[in-house]
Amino acid sequence: MGDQGWAALPEPVRVRLAEIASVAVGELPPSDVPSALRRLARFTPGKRARLGARALLGELRESSAFRSAVVAWWTEHRAGDEPGTDRVTAAAVAVLTGAEDATELVASVAERVDVGALRAERDAALARVDKLTAELERLRAELAEARSGARQVVPEMERELEKLRRRIREQGMRVRAAEDRTRAAESELAELRRTSAEELAVAVSERDRARERANAERARAARAGEQASGARAAAREARKADEARLELLLDTLAGAVAGIRGELALGGGGRGGPRPADLVRGARPLRPEAARVSDPSGLDRLLALPSVHLIVDGYNVSKTGYPELTLFDQRTRLVGALGALAARTGAEITVVFDGAAVAGGPSRQPRGVRVLFSDPGVTADDVIRELVGSEPFGRPVLVVSSDRAVAESVHRGGAHPLASSVLLDLLSRG
């Protein structure tokens, strides 16, 4: 049998040849064992067949002397084992001895191997078919159950769909009603804008006339010379005060317009312009007495009012809160804390210090904080009362001072007096 015949041997025949050679290697004289196989002689026959099968078959195929030695050993020791009863062994011996029926026996073993492989594939295929059949039955059962569940769910889904349709129709009606209200509100807002524009034009005209009067007064004061310089300064101060009042009133008007716009957006109503009772001549409203505030949360609420003005008696607060510091450090710390409060609340803040024995003001003032020092001969209390009296009627004004006389006087003027400790508690909260 040539090399191609050995390469085409069925696996069982190759294994049986390796087993025969492995047993023979252990019993042959060392001189009959090729050098490549002598290291296998120390192993057991089973281990030799398992680990040295390739080397054993290679020597049987390549070495005729080794093959002849194995054949002689087989003839002497195993010929009586009736190899015909084992087709694999018979085929292996026939290949080994070069018998004429070797090809036929090898073919018979190969056919049996092929038949066994086909049977195994058939059994595996049948097992897969049984498994797929069971899976198909399970899927059919699940499909039937799903269909049954769907038949039960569909009526409920149709009822839910009808409910959703009704809700959509109702929502559509609400949307259309809301659109109608929106158009009506937009119309009212346009009218309000037109009215506000007219009122603003009147206010601007009044301001222009006030400026013209101030200019005429300034011209007359210029012609009057040195004796009228004081009157000119007074006219300028009066003009600035009028402009400040007018600007504040314009801000108040804008806030009112914004408030009305917000009410319209919410669907609520609101008062429009003045009422007839507001235009009666010969009478005027008095400032209402302001409520007293005694806790930081109340002060925080008041600071949230639009256009609020917080006036602080500087030394009265700083000496209460930081008596251990110098006056300069007291002013610096208080003004810095008020700057943080102004940044947080957006309120207008004015702090007044007595100007006696003060050489210069702070090097830097925080944004939103006005720092004033009273002139010689004038106390900070007098400046505070003047500030309260200069504010227009209706603007929220807060005065922080523990001086009872100051608190009483600004309270009668319509301002909200607060103790210094209330402001210090609020500042300490950050």
Write up what this structure looks like.
Helices cover 67% and strands 5% of the residues. It is mostly helical. The chain folds into 3 domains: 3-99, no CATH class; 143-273; 286-428, 3-Layer(aba) Sandwich (Rossmann fold), CATH 3.40.50. Strands 3-2-1-4-5 form a 5-stranded parallel sheet, with helices on both faces. α10 (314-321) crosses α11 (327-345). It is elongated.
Radius of gyration: 57 Å
Enumerate the spans where pLDDT stays under 50 for 5 or more consecutive residues.
261-273
- What is the helix/strand order? HHHHHHHHHEHHEEHEHEH
Percent of residues in helical segments?
55-70%
Strand runs, count: 5
Strand proportion, as a percent range, falls in: 5-15%
Q: Using the coordinates shown, work out and report the CATH topology of the largest domain.
A: Rossmann fold
Tally of helical segments: 14
What integer is the average pLDDT? 80
Q: CATH architecture of the largest domain, please?
A: 3-Layer(aba) Sandwich
Strand order within the widest beta sheet: 3-2-1-4-5
Question: Which class of secondary structure composition applies to the elements?
Answer: mainly alpha
How many discrete domains?
3
Report the top-level CATH class of the largest domain: Alpha Beta
Q: How far apart lie the N and C ends?
A: 105 Å
Tell me, briefly, the overall form: elongated
Task: Note the main sheet.
Answer: 5 strands, parallel
Summary keywords:
mainly alpha; Rossmann fold; 14 helices; 5% strand
Question: How do the helices and strands line up, and which of them pair or pack?
Answer:
Layout: H1 3-7, H2 11-27, H3 45-51, H4 53-62, H5 64-77, H6 87-97, H7 102-224, H8 229-265, H9 296-303, E1 309-313, H10 314-321, H11 327-345, E2 348-353, E3 369-373, H12 380-390, E4 397-400, H13 404-412, E5 416-418, H14 420-428
Parallel strand pairs: 1-2, 1-4, 2-3, 4-5
